[in-house]
Amino acid sequence: MTGHREPTVVGVPNFNAMEDAAALRAAMKGFGTDEQAIIDILTSRSNAQRQAISQAFTHEYGRDLIEDLKSELGGHFEDVIVALMLPPEEYLCKELNKCMEGLGTDESVLIEILCTRTKKEIADIVQAYERLYDRPLAEHMCSETSGDFRRLLTLIVTRAPQGARDEEAGVDAARAADSAQQLYDAGEAKWGTDEEVFNKILAHESFAQLRLIFEEYKNLAGRTIEQAIKAEVDGELKDAYSAIVECVQSAPAWFARRLRGAMQGLGTDDTTLIRVLVSRAELDLAAVKREYEALYDKTLESEIRGETSGDYKRALVALLGPA
After folding, report:
1. Mean pLDDT across the stretch 131-151?
2. Quick check: 31 and 72 in contact, CB under 8 A?
3. Could you tell me if 270 and 310 are in contact, meaning their C-beta atoms sit under 8 angstroms apart?
4. Can you list the pairs that 204-208 forms with residues at least 24 positions away whose Cβ atoms lie under 8 Å?
């Protein structure tokens, strides 16, 4: 989880919200919709710029831009455009809510959103969730998950506002060595694994501090933390731990694997495809593209072109930026 960003979407210079609002209105007014104009405008503006367009649109036309877009567009193309129009934390809240509502919970979405993000990102999500759904995220999650997996996610979510995952704080080598020893004692050094210790350290420490802890662990145990986790933990708890560990080493590589999973096998997991591209576009999608090609010897763009079609495909490819 390195500090430098590698976005594919950075917004446009000389931005004019009113002009964009007028262009979008023209693209939707009258007979037929100019989908290409909608793609060109919304995939090249930053989220902050899109929020300004939305306000200008309402101010000028007395209409809700998202509602107008929904009435003009359909299918996965509509999903991409609506995802782009929501503030990032609201979009992720909607995705969290959707994965917990109805029959069964999609744990992989909980892991993707909550185990890969910094304290500040989690705190924003927690705040937005309560505002949108009038119930705390932790409470909703507790009713949909169980065991050590539930405890880990609850720690991540409830500690975010109080300083868990503080990316700003420096790293502490002595404390890292101590944490590595605790992990070793809780896992390999005894029969059975003490998940409580793993949960506390993996949920609480910053990514930079965890990187140091994992190096110390390797010196101490003679094998990597990933090897220990694979040997000692299973199920969604293993997936959650692995996501944290892999994101400490390289978040873009983790998201590249997540995209690969969404496009492999029977049918495409469009929801995941859209969520990863939209939510990483202003963070590290350029790095995700590079990792994808390094891992799979194919460009992300060529894979997406093979899995999608029409305006949906054009919108996703636009988010990827130049090759």
Report:
1. 96
2. no
3. no
4. 204/155, 204/159, 204/164, 204/165, 205/164, 205/165, 205/179, 206/118, 206/119, 206/165, 206/166, 206/167, 206/169, 206/171, 207/1, 207/118, 207/165, 207/167, 207/247, 207/248, 208/1, 208/167, 208/171
Q: Rounded distance, CA 179 to CA 209, Å?
A: 10
Beta carbons within 8 Å of 143's beta carbon, 6+ residues apart: none
Mean pLDDT, the chain, rounded, equals 93
Is the distance from CB of 125 to CB of 165 less than 8 angstroms?
Answer: no
pLDDT of residue 161: 64
Would you say 3 and 275 are in contact if contact means Cβ atoms under 8 Å apart?
A: no
What are the residues whose beta carbons fall under 8 Å from the beta carbon of 7, sequence distance 6 or more? 281, 282, 283, 284, 285, 286
pLDDT band at 159 (very low <50, low <70, confident <90, very high): confident
d(C-alpha 170, C-alpha 77), whole Å:
43
- What's the pLDDT tens digit per position in 51-83? 999 999 999 999 999 999 999 999 999 999 999
Does residue 102 come out as left (phi exceeding 0), alpha (psi in the -120 to 50 range) or beta? left
- pTM attached to this predicted model: 0.94
